[in-house]
Design brief:
Distance between the termini: 24 Å
Oligomer: single chain
Number of strands: 9
Order of helices and strands: EEEHEEEEEE
Length: 101
């Protein structure tokens, strides 16, 4: 999958990553160093992507925390992003709903 992101024309990111069948394969890929490297503003993250039930999960590991971006297509007009930030043994969840206009 190719993911292109532009933030206010200041920061442009493009990543090409595999979507693996499940978390076990993603964990194995990470262990083997088969990750996508993302760099922005002098920082680096490693990414693996996989399916979990009806979700597509992007798992990013950064210097101070790791994030799980869980994308759920609720219906043809509704995408829900379940975000979990893991830091210092704590989990900080949030959720955002995107509606097709």
């Amino acid at each position: 999958m190719i993911d292109k992101t532009s933030m206010a024309g200041i920061l442009n990111l493009e990543a090409n990553y595999k979507i693996l069948e499940n978390k076990e394969l993603a964990d194995q890929a990470r262990e083997n160093g088969d990750v996508t490297i993302e760099e922005a503003m002098g920082k680096q993250a490693t990414l693996v992507c996989y399916y979990e039930d009806n979700l597509m999960v992007l798992h990013r590991v950064m210097e101070l925390f790791e994030g799980f971006y869980k994308h759920e297509l609720k219906d043809e007009n509704t995408l829900i992003l379940h975000l979990e930030i893991h830091r210092d043994g704590k989990v900080y969840p949030s959720q955002e709903t995107f509606l097709k206009q």
